[in-house]
Every structure is written in structure tokens, then in C-alpha cells.
Write a structure and sequence with these properties.
The chain is built from 6 helices and 25 strands. The chain is an alpha+beta fold. Strands 17-18-19-20-24 form a 5-stranded mixed β-sheet, with no helix packed on it.
Length: 392
């Protein structure tokens, strides 16, 4: 039968290390012959090999139900299932932080740096510190080692939608709120307090995101008013007001390698835009690229670590053909290079592999989604059309 042919091909793929292709064939084989134990058994073993414990357990539980109890196949499946369950038990939460009175919308780790050692570093020696923003209108600073809240930052009159530590490790924290303001806080040298330095207001609607440039000299806020603003961190003065989007702006990120001279924004108007912040007085703040796919709201955007490319996250839910897509654009030309499909619900987060060498052509991206999965992708710059994820 065709199910057996697919299973045989999956075994061949598995033998030569082509796990992704093997998994695809095994899923199809199991659908065609749902009472056959072999496809889910091999599928479970492949997930075990890839350390995908939940998927391994699900497949092996199905295989155990189909196999004849007491048979050699059943014994092997039972052993694999026990291994998957043990791995799940050993995969534990390191720290759970509770205290907010509403949904937590943003978190940010305090970076380590020589500046930190001179200021708050002595008081926080050995600590891992994280800030969080919540719908309860507060930001909190936590010690992960102790699992407790160090400070509660009050002052916003609406939900806190974003928090970001200054990358220089000086202990400066930004919070952005639905009340339309962003606040600049300083963690005191003793780490016993956190002082409000400034509050900046320039938007006419709720803020959606806040981010620093690479050096922490400037920061950007985005808003439901369709604008992005760039501010001086030290003075709190507005440097640029970026107008051009026709819908809510969801995020703004600085180019990682050019010292805050360009910013990319993502909007519900179905576009992402790249802005020049380094020109003369007349040119600075102008849009130099509009990154368009033609359809779907843009809810997230990130530069690749070397800054040569931009990953744009789009979503089009509720349509006849809903999609949740990653698009790879050149940051130099603004042209699309590749697109990636795989998630079946809104993509909620992006994170690059921090251990890859800077000169590597292909980089690995992790994405999280409301479809309940985490996926890994190889981001290659070649204009080769559709891409595929490495791991689910």
C-alpha cells in the first residue's frame, strides 16, 4: 500500500539523518493507515532523538495503544515511552515569578557590563535580574536567584506594554504604557531603590513597544497613533517623529550595527518601513524603504544579527486562506529574499541563536506562536523562494 511505501521511505530518510522528511512521510503514513503502530512508533523515536519530548510522548502513547500487548514491538514502544516521560519530568521550570495583578506583556534581562560593576553590580553580585511590564499598570524588577520581587515601579495610569534595559548595563530601564507615555528609570547604586528620572510624552494614543539602540544613546517608541518617535536617552528630548504608516505601529527596532542610524517599524497597515536617522536636518527621519508583501498585518520585525537582512512577521487570520508568515528582506535594497510558512496561528516572538559566529552566512531563528509550537528556522539570504523550518 502507499502507506507502507511512505513508511519505508521514512525509514530510509531516518537512516541518513533526514529527520524532517522522515517525519513528514510518517505523518502521512499514519493518516492513511491509522490502526498501524509502526508509523507512530518510529515518529516517536525520531522526536526522542530530536529531544521533542511532548511530541515523542504523544506519538508513542498512540503507538502503545495500537501495538499488541506483550509483543516485542510493544515492549520496545513501552521503553521509549518511559524515556519520553522521564525526560519530560526532568525538564522543569527554573523559576516562577508571581506578583503582578494582570497579564505580563514584556520582560527584559539586565545586561552585564563593566559599567554595572561600578554602579549597581556590587549590590547585585551573583544575581540574575529581570524586569517585567504588566497590564496592572506596573513594572517590576526581580531577582531570579532569590525568586522574589526587588522593586515595584508605579507611575503609569495604564497597562505597561514594554520594558527594556539600557544595553550598556548602567541600570537604566524604560517602560512604555497604554497611557501614551514612556518612563526612564534608574536602578540605584545600592540596588535598594529605582528612581524615576524622566517621563516622555509625544504620542496621541497608547504605546505598543519601546527599544534602545545598540549603545543606549537613543530609544524608540511606537504607538497606536501610527507613528514612531526617537528620543535622546540622557535628556529625554524628542529627536525624530516618524510619520508615514497608515495604521497602528506595533514595533520599532534599531539596526544592530550602525549605531542607531536607522530604524525599522512594523505596522497593521501591512508594511514595515526602514527610516534614515543619520541624514542632515532635512533628510533625517525619512523613510528609505517600504517592505511590502501585499497582504497581512505586520506584527513583528527584527534585523538579522549582522544587520544585512530584516525578518518581517505577518498575519492574516480569519480569511479563507489564513497565513502566519515570516518574510526575509534585504535591509540594503528593501527587496524580498525569502518567505517561510509553518505556524498556524499568530507568531508571538522571535529570538536569534546567540552562539553563532558573526561571519556565518546562515543563521538560526526561533519563533513562538499561539499555535502552541516553537520552531527553529535556518535564515539563508539567497533568493530561493519558500523556506522550511528545521525543528518544531
Amino acid at each position: 500500500s502507499f502507506a507502507e511505501l511512505l513508511f519505508a521511505r521514512a525509514r530510509a530518510y531516518s537512516a541518513v539523518g533526514e529527520a524532517t522528511k522522515a517525519i513528514s512521510d510518517l505523518k502521512r503514513s499514519a493518516e492513511m493507515r491509522p490502526i498501524w503502530a509502526d508509523p507512530p512508533a518510529l515518529l516517536g523515536r525520531l522526536h526522542l532523538r530530536r529531544e521533542e519530548w511532548v511530541l515523542a510522548r504523544e506519538s508513542l502513547e498512540r503507538a502503545a495503544q495500537l501495538a499488541k500487548p506483550g509483543s516485542e514491538a510493544w515492549e520496545r514502544i513501552s521503553g521509549d515511552l518511559a524515556a519520553a516521560r522521564k525526560a519530560l519530568e526532568e525538564a522543569y521550570c527554573v523559576c516562577a515569578l508571581s506578583g503582578h495583578g494582570g497579564e505580563v506583556s514584556s520582560v527584559s534581562f539586565l545586561p552585564s557590563s563593566p559599567l554595572l560593576k561600578d554602579s549597581v553590580g556590587a549590590a547585585l553580585e551573583g544575581e540574575l535580574v529581570v524586569a517585567s511590564g504588566s497590564a496592572d499598570g506596573t513594572a517590576r524588577i526581580w531577582s531570579l536567584r532569590r525568586g522574589e520581587c526587588l522593586h515595584v515601579l508605579r507611575g503609569h495610569s495604564g497597562p505597561v506594554r514594554g520594558v527594556a534595559w539600557c544595553p550598556d548595563g548602567s541600570g537604566i530601564l524604560l517602560s512604555a504604557s497604554a497611557d501614551g507615555s514612556a518612563k526612564i528609570w534608574q536602578l540605584d547604586a545600592s540596588a535598594e531603590g529605582c528612581t524615576l528620572l524622566k517621563s516622555v510624552e509625544g504620542h496621541t494614543a497608547a504605546l505598543t513597544h519601546v527599544s534602545f539602540d545598540t549603545y543606549g544613546a537613543v530609544f524608540a517608541t511606537t504607538s497606536e497613533d501610527g507613528e514612531a518617535c526617537v528620543w535622546d536617552t540622557e535628556t529625554g528630548l524628542l529627536l525624530h517623529r516618524l510619520e508615514g504608516h497608515a495604521g497602528r505601529v506595533n514595533k520599532g527596532v534599531f539596526h544592530p550595527a550602525n549605531g542607531g542610524r536607522s530604524l525599522c517599524t512594523a505596522s497593521d497597515d501591512t508594511t514595515a518601513k526602514v527610516w534614515d536617522l543619520a541624514g542632515d536636518v532635512e533628510e533625517a527621519g525619512k523613510c528609505i524603504h517600504t517592505l511590502e508583501w501585499g497582504d497581512g498585518l505586520v506584527n513583528d520585525v527584527e534585523y538579522t544579527p549582522d544587520g544585512r537582512f530584516i525578518v518581517v512577521v505577518t498575519r492574516k487570520p480569519g480569511s479563507v486562506k489564513p497565513f502566519f508568515r515570516l518574510l526575509l528582506f534585504s535591509s540594503v535594497s528593501g527587496r524580498i529574499c525569502r518567505w517561510f510558512d509553518g505556524h498556524s496561528a499568530t507568531i508571538t516572538g522571535l529570538s536569534w541563536n546567540p552562539s553563532q559566529a558573526e561571519d556565518e552566512e546562515v543563521v538560526t531563528l526561533a519563533t513562538s506562536s499561539r499555535d502552541g509550537t516553537l520552531r527553529l528556522w535556518e535564515m539563508a539570504p539567497e533568493p530561493t523562494g519558500a523556506g522550511a523550518h528545521l525543528l518544531e
